[in-house]
Design brief:
heterodimer; A: mainly alpha; ABC transporter involved in vitamin B12 uptake, BtuC; B: alpha/beta; 6-stranded mixed β-sheet; 4-stranded antiparallel β-sheet; 26% strand; globular; binds adenosine-5'-triphosphate; binds magnesium ion
């Protein structure tokens, strides 16, 4: 299957997004902010359709809106960032707004489907480079904030006392999470970002109590699930997003069974 | 040099004075129990000492300098314990509180040694190999104490370390803190709802109530006249077999507060 350009691009894109999504997802799960990640995808939908409407590449609209949304959630403060009601309402509004943009854009149904459910096989060379560039910047950002982020996530009061600025760290993290969400949406669509962002990370947290190993495992699982999904899509000709979501859920359930069956300490 | 010096210190939250013009000093190697009912301002005072809350008026000096954030010489165990990261290994959890630096959380040899030292001090080296979720409340408390000891503080602020522990574990934690405090020669502020578990360990008691503070030896502070003046209401102190009972209108104040606190913590733990 590697004789086709689109397959090679798809594998490269899945690797890039898997690494970023796994790393960022691990911290989203740790901070109980996964719902914020979910909402960012929907906010991105409005951005992507809006961008299409005014004639820019949807990926830029996606990144722009998720970034604005992430920073806004971060600025609203730690407590609000975990408040599901407010986030849910904004999420619904963003989807509605996206629908309105689509109404004016009168787009082909296939483009809408691609936004909502992803289009991994449609990723071109240019997009791969874009994903790689954004991914590198985001991972660089994570490398910069990982230490205070971990501290502030586990012991917010103590971190603040020791001189960490929790608000700043939170805003920076949600900005990175926004880019990771936008990249995941490019692969599996805004509706299924959980499959790449949360599934592998949650499974990794069940498998290891170590921080470094957990982050690495989350990234590895996300890449593996993306690749397996692609291979399965190639063989069956079913949508790759379906397969990725299936593997994500399957691995999560399996790890639950495995840790559930393991002897209690 | 005193560990803490307050002079005419007023701390306010949301426009309301929580502590009003209190003056007190805690010496360098002193273990002070901080008592007072819910909402008396125990947590607020500690947050001010950490520089997380600026005084509305008056002076607050910590280890000879005005209270400020980022003081490595002050260790802190917050009352609000995070619910996050329970699947993590104890060691990783403790080490996460290494410091405010930017960058990757790689722990160098020196940092790892510091974490191991803090764990050894509270005899939690073996516990730290397990995930937090597999530890009891008292065992988790010991890891939190190790975390507060990182950075070799000269002043340790412990906010309600006895919450949700049974009397036996309470005595263990108090004895452990006392032993660590004496072997390191540091000052400790230890807040609690009940005075009895602290009786053998503390040098002096700081009683907060109605915006005011009284500090001194237990025998001088935990008395009917002092507490009555603090609360501006008649209070009796009974002493039975070395234990104190602070009574107001025939009700045991401390035990009432304690029960209340129990209901809270049990609701919150998974
Ligand atoms: N943001 C706020 N605005 C106004 N008042 C506040 C605010 N936060 C806390 N308070 C009040 O400050 C008072 C002191 O609170 P603090 O947490 O210091 O009490 P405490 O002695 O630690 O109580 P507890 O034993 O319940 O832990 C309480 O009466 C509380 O209602
Ligand atoms: Mg308190």
């Amino acid at each position: 299957m590697f004789e086709y350009d689109f397959m090679r691009h798809a594998f490269a894109a899945a690797a890039i997004v898997g690494v970023l999504g796994g790393v960022v997802g691990w911290f989203l799960v740790l901070r109980a902010q996964t719902f914020a990640g979910h909402a960012l995808g929907h906010i991105g939908f409005a951005g992507a359709t809006g961008a299409a409407l005014i004639g820019i590449a949807p990926l830029w609209g996606l990144v722009g809106m998720t970034l604005a949304g992430g920073v806004a959630i971060g600025l609203l403060g730690e407590r609000l960032a975990q408040r599901d009601v407010a986030i849910g309402i904004v999420l619904a509004f963003a989807l509605g707004l996206g629908l309105l943009f689509l109404h004016f854009y009168t787009a082909y149904a296939s483009e809408t489907t691609a936004l909502l459910f992803g289009n991994l096989l449609g990723v071109d060379r240019h997009t791969v480079w874009l994903l790689a560039g954004l991914g590198a910047v985001s991972l660089g950002g994570m490398a910069l904030i990982a230490r205070p982020l971990l501290f502030a996530s586990l012991q917010p009061e103590l971190a603040a006392a020791r001189g960490v600025n929790p608000r700043l760290v939170s805003v920076l993290f949600l900005a990175v999470a926004a880019i990771a969400t936008a990249e995941s949406a490019e692969i599996v669509g805004v509706l299924l970002v959980f499959a790449l962002l949360v599934g592998p990370a949650a499974a990794a947290q069940r498998l290891t109590p170590r921080i470094g190993a957990g982050v690495a495992l989350a990234a590895g699982l996300a890449v593996a699930e993306g690749w397996a999904g692609l291979a399965a899509a190639y063989v069956t000709d079913w949508p790759s997003t379906f397969w990725i979501a299936t593997f994500s859920a399957g691995v999560y359930l399996l790890t639950g069974l495995a840790t559930g069956l393991a002897p209690r300490r | 040099m005193n560990a803490i010096e307050c002079e005419g210190l007023t701390l306010a939250l949301g426009g309301r004075d929580i502590l009003h013009r209190i003056t007190l000093a805690v010496a360098a190697r002193e273990f002070v129990g901080v008592l007072g009912p819910n909402g008396a301002g125990k947590t607020t005072l500690m947050r001010a000492i950490l520089g997380l809350l600026a005084p509305r008026e008056g002076q607050l000096r910590v280890l000879g300098r005005p209270a400020a954030r980022g003081n490595r010489a002050v260790g802190y165990m917050p009352q609000a314990r995070g619910e996050q990261g329970l699947h993590l290994r104890g060691w990783d959890f403790v080490a996460a509180a290494g410091g405010p630096r930017w960058g990757l959380p790689w722990r160098g040899a020196a940092e790892r040694a510091a974490v191991d030292r803090a764990l050894a001090l509270v005899d939690a080296t073996a516990l730290a190999r397990r995930p937090l979720a597999a530890l009891s409340g008292g065992e988790r408390q010991r890891l939190l104490l190790a975390q507060a000891l990182l950075g070799e503080p000269r002043l340790l602020l412990l906010d309600e370390p006895l919450i949700s522990l049974d009397p036996h574990r309470q005595a263990e934690v108090v004895a452990l803190v006392r032993q660590v405090q004496q072997s390191l020669g540091i000052a400790v502020l230890f807040s609690a709802h009940e005075i009895n578990p602290l009786l053998g360990a503390m040098d002096r008691v700081l009683y907060l109530g109605a915006g005011k503070a009284a500090i001194g030896p237990v025998a001088e502070v935990i008395t009917g006249p002092v507490l009555s003046e603090l609360y501006a209401t008649p209070i009796e102190v009974l002493q039975v077999r070395g234990r104190f009972f602070v009574m107001s209108g025939g009700q045991d104040m401390e035990h009432a507060a304690h029960r209340h606190e129990h209901a809270h913590t049990h609701g919150g733990t998974p």
